[in-house]
Specification:
By secondary structure, this protein is mainly beta. The protein is built from two helices and 27 strands. The chain folds into five domains: 97 residues, Cadherins (Immunoglobulin-like, Sandwich), CATH 2.60.40.60; 103 residues, Cadherins (Immunoglobulin-like, Sandwich); 111 residues, Immunoglobulin-like; 40 residues; 52 residues, no CATH class. The protein is rod-shaped and about 205 Å long.
Length: 437
Amino acid sequence: MDVNDHAPEVTMSAFISPIPENAPETVVALFSVSDLDSGENGEINCSIQEDLPFLLKSSVGNFCTLLTEKPLDRESRAEYNVTITVTDLGTPRLTTHLNMTVLVSDVNDNAPAFTQTSYTLFVRENNSPALHIGSVSATDRDSGTNAQVTYSLLPPQDPHLPLASLVSIKADNGHLFALISLDYETLQEFEFRVGAVDLGFPALSSEALVRVLVLDANDNSPFVLYPLQNGSAPCTELVPRAAEPGYLVTKVVAVDGDSCQNAWLSCQLLKATEPGLFGVWAHNGEVRTVGLLRERDAAKHRLVVLVKDNGEPPRSATSTLHVLLVDGFSQPYLRLREVAPAQAQADSLTVYLVVALASVSSLFLLSVLLFVAVQLSRRSRAASMGRCSVPEGPFPGHLVDVSGTGNLSQNYQYEVCLAGGSGTNEFQFLKPVLPNT
């Protein structure tokens, strides 16, 4: 009678390692088992661990095959320790173990994955060219060349974006160097896509969105829109002398091409012809009277307003205002440039009027004197004759008739007598001369 005094024997006849991942029912090993005992003592049972993705199949004779049960994933587990257990059915049962290590080889089944689906990079304007502004990074779970990644810029979706002239990317590490000096006032932001591709076969790739935000620098000074500072004739603001304190004279309007605090503007009165009469509200640029205006205050005032932004360092601009104090708005509007010429013209006109008036007065006085002299001369001649002079015939018709009917009627004759030495004139009506009927 046989005694179970021999343990089973296991002989490896074929072994494949590593085996490729993603390959189901792939033969891993082929081995033979035997037992020198007979009967139940020579019958053999083979098994492996239950938690492994492998199958152990018996074939014709005493041969067994180890193969994969399902696709393996190298990225989850790159090797397995497999123990082949061979047990006979004798009493007591004898067992033999065979240990093997199965390696899993990589297949390019993973595309590169970016650490972020999108990147936001910040760069201050007026940067130096070739400045490093940020990096993108992608990893590949594969191994070897299947895990080596190269980077590139993908064509922009906006065909008008000159991406190739704005940024570049280093293929081996994903570093991004701005190619030109960026200007916030021209381009505040732009975006593009970056691709990552591995060196496997076939190659796998992925992409990520990159957004570049240009940060504003305080490189623009405030620009005064009103009053205009273009060197033309200055605009003069009229203010009645009776204006109450706080009277709105005008408003300085300015803009700044920068943004945020670099564009926050404030105003202050820098110079004034007479300090204390006018003030400037800091946050709205309103120019108002501070107190009551007095008669002794100058009529013309020049104010210089400083407009300053809140950048670091701050930038500023100045605005010159001209104010004219008037007694009322009925006075004509005069520009400051025209005040002096108009005054000069008024003075010249006054001189001309005085000269003309003197000339006319002189001529009038001379005419009166001549008239008096002529009258005296006539009286002297009449006194020397001592008689009246009566004209013959009708009164001359070219004299004006006081009756308003045109020429004097020729139906009357008049006698004009100048009595010599009497000092009086006598005007006598004569009898009418009637025509024959």
